[in-house]
Amino acid sequence: MRLIVERQKLTLSVFTADVGGFVGHVSSHPDILDTAKERLYIAREKGFIVDFHVLRCGDDLELIITHRSGCANSGVHELVWNTFNACKEVSMDLGLYAHDRGLSSRDFTGSVKLMGPGAAEVEFMERGSEPVLVLMSNKTSTGSWNLPVYRVYADPFNTSGLVLDPSMAEGFSFTVLDIEQNSEITLQAPKELHSLLALIGSTSRYVVTSVRRNTDNEIACVVASQKLNMSGERAASKCEPAVIMRCHDGLPSVGEAMEAFAHPYLVEGWMRGAHTGPLMPVPFYEANPTRFEGPPRAIGAGFQITDGRLIGPHDMFDDPSFDETRRVANNVTDYLRRHGPFQPHRMSWAELERTGPSPVADKLKERFEKL
Ligand code: F6R
Ligand code: MG
């Protein structure tokens, strides 16, 4: 029988980092996942965290943690930092690929943000039943979730609850980060829908970071948006973000959230973080992007959170209703790959230079003659 525990806020934190790939940048090694599980198991035994689950998408390791310490807690971040570094040690031992690119070598100062890992954290009062989706990606980039998040919380053609459930009738507010100016704005849908789309359609600059219900400001969704770019040492840059969506009971249902992924829309990332390709939603075991290191992947982990315990995960894209999405994604992949190094499959220099100068362009600079 379920005990009635004193109601207190719960924090769900999702951290992602690439601590070395197996093979190349395609997947992660089972020993890495085991190491993360061992570390977090000890933290749970000590009562420091309530529960955890370890997953991976491509070569990105994903730590899903529940605890009572609130968002951006330095103790939780230190646990995560130490866990990722323990995984990196194993990665070095196994000689996994590019183990040195995911974590900064700077000393830990209280937060993993801007040290390499991505972080999506949300604090809420657990409802009687708390269905939550955690979506994770690989070979994508910051802003990749803008389109599906918009569809889930602002598009009645996706989410019928926006017209059928009175508690959602007022719509949702979107907080949007400008990654160039490091500033943010909150826009209300449906009232400011067109302004919202004007910004977030520009996915490489404007990133939806959270969504709240207009009637009572209840948090519905958070997105990991910032991550240190290890090569360019840029603060807000490309990352393979995760998103947390709370579902039902006045929020979009699980099925409405999933519906937004039925179309394999184009995202930036893929090979060398330099190409545009279709986001292919796959079951956990198919999150190994091998063809041209793509196409970009998304996995979905569904949990019921009960007294902080992560009941799950259910593998959300392990469903034949997404077979057609995957088939279209493969067709789009064939079509785009024939463009080789040409735009718009390959991204423009301007886009590529957002994450650092191009050695190729620099080399040719002095050979250009001014006209
Ligand atoms: C993209 C990615 C890969 C690498 C590519 C080149 O996020 O991880 O597509 O960019 O395999 O890898 P390096 O530069 O390690 O030779
Ligand atoms: Mg990698």
Plain-language structure description:
The protein is an alpha+beta fold. The protein has one domain. 25% of the residues lie in helices and 27% in strands. The protein contains nine helices and 15 strands. The strands form three sheets. Strands 5, 6, 7, 8, 9, 10, 13, 14 and 15 form a nine-stranded mixed sheet that branches. A four-stranded antiparallel sheet has the order 2-3-1-4, covered by helices on one side. It has a two-stranded antiparallel ribbon with strand order 11-12. It is globular and about 75 Å long. The termini are far apart. The relative contact order is 0.15. Mean pLDDT is 93; it is low at 232-237. Magnesium ion is lined by residues 18, 21, 25, 59, 98.
Number of helices, counting only DSSP H or I runs of 4 residues or more: 9
| Fraction of helical residues | 10-25%
Strand content: 25-35%
List bound small molecules: fructose -6-phosphate, magnesium ion
Tally of domains: 1
Q: Give the overall average pLDDT.
A: 93
Instruction: Give the topology string: H per helix, E per strand.
Output: EHEEHEEHHEEHEEEHEEEEEHHH
Please specify the SSE layout and strand pairing.
Layout: E1 9-17, H1 30-45, E2 51-57, E3 60-67, H2 74-94, E4 118-125, E5 130-138, H3 146-154, H4 161-164, E6 172-178, E7 183-189, H5 193-200, E8 206-213, E9 219-223, E10 243-246, H6 254-259, E11 266-269, E12 275-278, E13 280-281, E14 297-306, E15 309-315, H7 323-337, H8 349-353, H9 359-365
Parallel strand pairs: 13-14
Antiparallel strand pairs: 1-3, 1-4, 2-3, 5-10, 5-14, 6-7, 6-8, 8-9, 9-10, 11-12, 14-15
Bound molecules: fructose -6-phosphate (F6R) and magnesium ion.
Fructose -6-phosphate is lined by residues 24-25, 98, 139, 271-273, 293.
